[in-house]
Amino acid sequence: MLVTWRRSSLFFASNTKFSVSVTALVKWHETGIHALLARLKMSSPAYLKLLTNTGTVVHTDEGQSIPIWELAVPPSDDACLKDWATRFRQNYCLDSDIDALRDGTGLTRSQYLLDFAFPDGKVAPGPSIRAGDFAELLISDYIEHVLGYWVPRGKYSEKESRNESAKGVDILGFKVVSSGKADPNDELLTYEVKAQLSETASNAKLQEAIDHSHKDYLRAAISLNATKRRFIKGKDDEKIGLIARFQNKDDRPFIYKSGAAAMLSTAAFDEAKLKSSTIVNHVNLKNLQLIVIKGSGLMALAHAIYKRAADEA
Questions:
Q1: What's the whole-model pTM score?
Q2: How many domains, in total, are found in the chain?
Q3: Exposure winner among 9, 109, 161, 162, fewest CB in 10 A?
Q4: What is the mean pLDDT of residues 247-261?
Q5: Tens-digit pLDDT profile for residues 27-44
Q6: Range of the domain at 72
């Protein structure tokens, strides 16, 4: 059974008609979003030990703080890499789906993932898409396991072409205050992520992420709807209800936060360019957070995770 009505706004869109499953709304109230989020959050992955806060904070010319984190490259025999590769693979193709998807192709699991699911490791624009996806997925883990938001997954498996970026807001994060009801202090976080993992000079990736984050205010409604559609296909009523809670800010107020992140190689890390980053034109500058993750050998690490994810499927 479906209930259909017209809202004055769908988050930031206007005059939009949509439907929500009655079952989803009932489960939302019965179980409470807070309890649902607790169940959805995966245990903190062991590989996050590699991501550390350096304690350094770069201040922009406008006074904005940019905390600097560092991602270490582990030895190839580090036990955390197996778990990382397993979790990484699920973003593109669930292990339970691989055999059905490769059926009829004559490909092994590894070949299927490398040829149909993962961005190409050598032919452009594949390597740059790999870098971007790798950065987005690590920042997703940071948002979920360090900042404490729930981050829905699955959009990478819906790419029409493996060598393109997923459309819409890079990362959505949800945080709620109370069980069973919408609270004005519930939070929706949208994050934009840009990466330069190759050892080349900086291209002001943080500024690019800030500029793209500014646009999230308008495209968040579309990304929320796309996320809900994935859960509708999976008949996941609880998650449908959770997304619905954040689709109408007028009737069910919440705090909207924004974020911009850059993942940079050692050569691309340029403190002077970070200091010149500007947020004055950002629509949500009072609720904007910034972060930079730096490291050496990051592109090689990304390729190694993709290879291990394929080989161990």
A1: 0.89
A2: 1
A3: 161
A4: 97
A5: 544 455 555 556 555 578
A6: 2-311
